Amino acid sequence: MLRLSVSEIIDLIEKEAVFEAVAEDYSFTLKIDAYVPYVCGAVHDGHQFRQSLWDNCLHTEYERWYEEDPCTREMVASHPIVIAGCDSRFEYDLNRAPDGAIYSDAWGKKLWREPLPKEEYDHSLQKHTAFYEVVHALIGKLEELHRKVIVFDMHSYNWKRWDREVPTWNLGTANIDNDRFGTIVESWRGKLSEMVLPHGIKSTSLINDTFQGNGFFLKYITTTFPNTLVLATEIAKVYCDEYAAIIFPEVVRAVETQLKELIPLQAEEFVKAEL
Predict the structure, then answer these.
(1) Over the chain (275 residues), what is each successive 10-residue block's mean pLDDT?
(2) SS (H, E, C) the chain
(3) pLDDT tens digits for 7-35?
(4) Domains within the chain, CATH numbers bracketed
């Protein structure tokens, strides 16, 4: 894996180079094995939290981990194009617009002992900006090469905090063109519902049940690139113990193995569809 500046990453994308890189500040990774018409994203996979913020942060490492989306990059790591965040959403949230990407409070609890100094705020915001410069270059190149592009926007959520039965998979579609892409969404929902998971875990799937797909990653791509569909795909954290912070690797592997087959099938169906 190469360590590259944002400008170097964008230059390689423009040249249609095959590469795997980490940003020079280690804030995100990008792998491109081939310029296929689909991308896998895991913007909340990261857990890094820079040391200059530690003493000022009121949330524990566990509280941060609890709200992150661990293993979502691992679930799609085998695919040709994968972009993933390395930093915690508590440092800056890649799934929020720039003016709301840096929290003052999080999930009902104040985040900072003292207001974040301007230099720390600006440092975090620059990381957010850099990520979206690369996203813009990547999707722009793929739309240039292909008639249309599909993005699998992978997330997870804490299912035990709900006081009702919730689906294993939730697709958020409130901010996509459902008249145009509704059949693709339903097809993806159906594929996820047929996944077989260890220990008798059910693989139910619903649309706009727990979340509606209001994230900035989806909104930015959708509003900027009209021929790109973003599928906001959330798995309940059945692959870990939310309260003990224990990952179940056999469940993660089962998801990864089946997505290795299902994602290319869905991408092929999308490319062939008259949309």
Answers:
(1) 98 98 98 98 98 98 98 98 98 98 95 97 98 98 97 97 97 98 98 97 97 98 97 98 97 98 98 90
(2) CEEECHHHHHHHHHCCCCEEEEECCCCEEEEECCCCCEEEEECCCCCECCHHHHHHECCCHHHHHHHCCCCHHHHHCCCCEEEEECECCCCCCCCCCHHHCCCCEECCEECECCCCCHHHHHHHHHHHHHHHHHHHHHHHHHHHHCCCEEEEEEEEECHHHCCCCCCCEEEECCCCCHHHHHHHHHHHHHHHHCCCCHHHCCCCEEECCCCCCCCHHHHHHHHHCCCEEEEEEEEECCCEECCCCEECHHHHHHHHHHHHHHHHHHHHHHHHCCC
(3) 999 999 999 999 999 999 999 999 999 99
(4) 2-272 (3.40.630.40)
